[in-house]
Structure formats: structure tokens, C-alpha cells
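Ticket reopened. Same input as before:
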Amino acid sequence: MSDVAERVKKIIVDQLGVEEADVKDDSNFIDDLGADSLDTVELVMAFEEEFGLEIPDEEAEKITTVKIAIEHIQKALNG
Amino acid sequence: MSHRIVVTGLGTVSPCGNRVDQTWDNIRNGRSGIATITKFDASTYTTQIAGEVKGFDPADFIDKKEIKKMDVFIHYALAATKEAMEDAKLTISEDFAEEVGVSIGVGIGGLPNIEYYAGVLKERGPSKITPFFIPMTISNMASGYVSIEFGAKGYNATTTSACSSANHSIGDAARIIERGDAKVMIVGGTESTICGMAIGGFGAMKALSRRNDSPETASRPYDQGRDGFVLAEGCGILILEEYEFAKARGAKMYGELVGYGFSSDAYHITSPTTDGPARAMKMALKDAKLDPSEVDYINAHGTSTPAGDINELKAIKLTLGEENAKKVSISSSKSMTGHLLGAAGGLEAVITLKAMQEGIVPPTINLESPDPECDLDVTPNHAKKREIKVAMSNSFGFGGTNATLVFRKI
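Engineering reply: fixed in the latest deploy. New output:
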């Protein structure tokens, strides 16, 4: 488990008010973790804040699961 | 065709307590809820005092994840509505959900977050504005969240008329029941604007008391030393029900809402006329089919401003006639709570109905040297026992708007 993955999961727990055990790699924010469309926008903003990134809207729309979020952020950090 | 309307539940969050019993106990005993501002650093403002709600934890009422999506005026509305619904022993079921409406008055709305996100926009740009900014700040969202939380599927809107928002909400909601469009209406007012924009804005109008060294005595309606109102926050909620509906389910009834009157001064944005409030009160009495001699108690608008307080007393004399006006008990509970703006009429309706239930007229505190023009019984400093069969509650707002409610004991 990378440091990025842990930080991503912590943000999801805080933002969506879910249990850590429920946040699995393949969890979909809307289908599995009870988020609505506004929650997902705010979630991406929280990722941007935590990792000092700018995630364009067209990229943000593709971030629908925990795994995709982690991969996207790792890629962006590695430039 | 006209249906009777009764009040079956009360709820409040106020500077004098976070429930009805605690608030009423403090009001009855003349205890002020005004203190030095803690919500932000007000040390550079000419006014540094307010009626803040104390020890309120939204997590007691709202899912943790939802709390940050709402400005505080919505938190208060959800908390006070929960208390009022429990008090009314009312659970909304599918068979009448479409006949339950929500109309919670709000004077301003989510000003603290408007102020905060204006800073975010300026300093960090539009991409840093939360997607919840609009729904957390718009004024009808108190009604919106309450309808979602409690499953009310009928009317869903808000009234906004500055400091008379709650009275308009209650009166207009009664009309909705009267014409048969609802059986139950969740009504009142909620407000939470204690932030730099409000203290600064009202301060610039020279509308606020500057008695910073003595917060508890700052709100002093009818006293010669009054120097403006004290900004406060909170919420007052009533459950209004059509009489037969309430009776059929064995609901307790605090009183009947028998009269609603409204008027516009059509004169000035902030300076009042005497005729305007008098017309609202006369209309409310006419609606109630009551004689001016029958009014026992008036919960005054009485905000502790130099012009407004005496003007209202003159309007009362114009409405009731000199002789009746001398016999009526009047008080300003704002002397203890401060001024809750759009929520004022909601809290004051709660106080008026508790006064009626217990036969106790709450006091106007801090009345040390009455204004020579204060020639009516404003219940100085101590509550008094009096049977209250008919009570009136006034609210007036910027824009020259006036709204009066009349309640009668059942």
C-alpha cells in the first residue's frame, strides 16, 4: 500500500463520511460509497488540495473509483 | 370554506437556550443571552457583542457528512424542527405526506459562507469554490432540507421580508391551510448571520448597540439609554395544523392562529411610519374577528432602536385606542434574545404561545430609566402573571414591511 493510496483513502473517509473498511480499491464513489454528483466534485477538489495538483474537469469526470483516483494521482505526481 | 388553524408543536434554538423549555425558563426569568462575539474576531468593529447560540452541536441532529454542506441557519432549522415535530408527536406518513408543507422564513441566508467564499474566490480563484456553496447559502434551503429530512411532500418555499420574514411565513402558511391546500405546515424562521459582513453592514447603518462593555444590558427597548439593536441568531419553528386534522389525531394545542395582518409603509427603506404597523395590527384583529379590548398581550417588535420602539407603541395606541392600549401587557423579548432578524417572529411566536400556556407575561429587561414617551405597560424587568386569552405578535422589516399574528387560547 503506497503512501498516496493511504492519503487518498483517508480523504474519501473524511469527505464521504464512510468507514475505512468500506473503502476498497474497486469501490465506486457513487454506487458503493453513497456519494452524489456534487460530492464527487468536492472529492476531487480535496485530492487537488492534498496533493497540490490541478485536475482538469475532463480528467476529473473519469475519476469514479478509488483505484482510478490513486492511479491518476500517482501518475500526475510522477509527472 | 375557511379552515381553523392550531399550533401543535414548538421548537427553538436561541441565544437563551437550545430547546423551548430552556429558552422559556430564561425568558420568563429575565436572563439575557447577549455576550461578546466569539464566532469571529470582532475587536476592530464598533460593535463587538451579539446574541450567539451557545453549545450547539449540529452532529446531534445531522449526519456528519452533511453538516459541512449547510450554512448554520440550516442546522438550526433542522434542530428546531426536530424538537417541534417531537413536541407535536407528529410523524409524516405516506398517506398524508403531500398535505404537509414547509415554509421557513429567512431574512438573509448563508451570509457567513458568502463572506468566506468571496475571500476564496478573490485569493484562490473560482476552481476553489465548493460545489455546495450555492445550496449551503440560498435562503429557501432551510425549507428544502426540512422537507427532505421529514418527508414533507407539499408546499416547499421560503418567505423573505427582512425582520418580518418569519411572521409572513407563519401567516401565509396559515392561508395555505385555510384554503385547503395543506393539513400541516412547518413554519417559522431561521437565521445565522453573525459574521463580519453583518456586524459591519448593520454597523455602518448605525443600527447596532455599541454597549460592548456590558453585553447583557445592551438590548434595552424603551429605555432612554438604548442605542440600537443587538444582532442575534437562532430559529423558531411552529407546527401549524388544520383543527380537525389535529383533533382527530389527539394532538395537544397551544393555541389557535386566528389573525394575520400585513401592510407596507410605502415610505422609506428603514424609517418606519406609525400608520403602517397600525394597519397591519388592525387587519390582524379584523381577520381574527376580535375587538381591540380583547387583546391581553402583545409581543412587540421592540428592537431597542431610538426611533422604532416608541413608534410601535404609538401604533399600538392607534390600533387599540388609548384606553385599551393602557390595559394591554406589552413586552419585548428582544431585550433578552437580541434581534434574530428573519427568525425573530418564529422565536417570538414560540415565546408568545408559552406565555399564553403558562399565563405569564415575559418581561422587558434593562428598563432602568424609561423613555418619557413610553406610556404603556411594557412589563418592566420582571415577568408577571396574567391570563392571556388573546395575544398578538408584531414583526416589522426593512423595506417598510409589517406583519402581525394573533393567537387565541383554545
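The CA atoms of residues 16 and 34 of chain A lie 8 Å apart. Chain A has four helices and no strands. Please confirm and we'll close it.
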